[in-house]
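lol so apparently i was supposed to do this last week
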Amino acid sequence: MCGVVGYVGPRKVVGVILEGLRRLEYRGYDSAGMAVHDGSSIRVEKVVGKVSDLASRVEGINLDGTLGVGHTRWATHGGVTGENAHPHRDQDGRFVLVHNGIVENYLDIRDQLESRGVSFYSQTDSEVVVKLLSQIYDGDMLRSLTELGRRLEGSYALVILSKDDPGGFYCVRKGSPLVLGLTEGEGFCASDVPPLLPYTKDVIYLEEGDIAEVRPGSVRIWDKDGRPVERPVHRIDWDVSMAEKDGYPHYMAKEIHEQGTVLRSTLKGRLSESGVDLGDDVHWDGDFLRSLRRINLVACGTSYYACLVAERVLERWTSLDVKVDIASEYRYRDVKIGADTLAVFVSQSGETADTLAAQRKVRSLGGRCLGITNVRGSTLAREVHDLLLLKAGPEIGVAATKTFMGQLGALYLLALKLGWERGDLNPVEASRLAYGLLKLPYEVERVLERDGDVKAAAERFCGYDDFLFLGRGFSYPIALEGALKLKEISYVHAEAYAAGEMKHGPIALLEPNVPVMVVIPKDGLYEKTLSNVQEARARKSPIVAVASDGDDLIDQMADWVIRIPRCEECFSPFISVIPLQQFAYHVAQLRGCEIDQPRNLAKSVTVE
Ligand code: G6P
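anyway here it is w/ 6-O-phosphono-alpha-D-glucopyranose bound
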């Protein structure tokens, strides 16, 4: 949830840290701080606010140094205050650290330290960690960090400076991501790849329990027991411009516009009219596919809604028994996993704590796990048996858009592969569907061009404070996703219901101040949804319809119609989600909201 960076090398560290933190700000943005080692002492500066506030703070200060760490925070322990902001230091000023994660036994440790006379200035678990390190330290950093790892429970990515060591920094990783960057004469670390992209594409993902010492041009890594280990160097195929706004006012606008390209690259090389090839990271054979009876799809947030879409297409294209659940529920349920079950975990970041826990549960029950993620080196990618990468490029806006599109693409590939290779679909039909899927990136691009129509709708409806979103069948998960986008970035109360369920409660909310946004493409459930629209209209709710080109009937029912091109029912989610993303974006902009960094949210939720 928080972002950490570290740098050592010839550059002035302040600029490297500020730039790195800007690229990590999607992880948390309630406070920010940095520590700079000037060769003899460590100076700490921190602010409540954003990285830009930290930049203003350090502007007038002469922070000379080429070694330092930085942090952008999403508060967990303790409120948003200067004391609770990172970096944290021990009482002697010998160690300074930044932390991402949650140390679960911090209260016990804090009690023990207090009984030995240690006092605390913050409410954070991170201050407890640095003060524990200070107590453990015996002159040997590796031995002390190994012991620190033994004492801490929970998750942490730590970057640590020592006053007595102006030549480098230390990292410890458990449960929270940490990536090292390698270049000649420099050393970097960060919670994610984007801060490293301006300097290097060669990275090392630290593994569970790893301890690293980073010095200019060199890295040494040990496992949790202090044994030296080698970790592979990965070459990143993202370039720095992929993590820039590219002339768009917000990352979200850019990412919405990239969706045709994202879908194309997710499908590229994996789909033809003669079959589906999920690539070398998926290791199934025909016997395994034919033996399957059940498929469980597990995720959080937007990724969960992608799974709800997939549920419908898997039911249509395969004979499998499909179950979908939210990871935070699934992990505590008495699920039945057998040799005939495939469990699929969908997470754009690959770091969502509940999704990882759900995956570990299935593994412990002997189940086969497929991960669908956008981040190759992520924890999910490394832990699953089989992996399907989205290839969406980095997504910086906190509200997921292009990764949802990539997830739909990946899940449809999965459904088509299962249907085709198990013989659930006849080959002619499978080939026809493959063709339909291959055409979709072009269709997506056509819809994106209609942004102006959606903006006009947003101008008309941005003043309302409550919305009800409705949809049936394939459009129901899209209504859920549309409502989520609206509340996430514009803070407008939006609820989504299966249209047929409206009369069982939410209809009581309807009145002229509560518009109904209905997703109603011309599909097999069109007439049913239209009846629900009439019910809402009878309660004088303004109706905004996302409806197909050529549907004249809807003009008589709705106050405003946002048009989408006609397409085959099972592919409609790819098309209908776009105006809902654009609507949320424009409403947020018109209401003056912080689009890329909505309040209280974080992109990567690494806590339970
Ligand atoms: C957070 C983000 C959402 C995202 C969800 C799941 O809540 O704000 O945009 O959908 O986490 O994230 P994941 O990385 O697992 O897809």
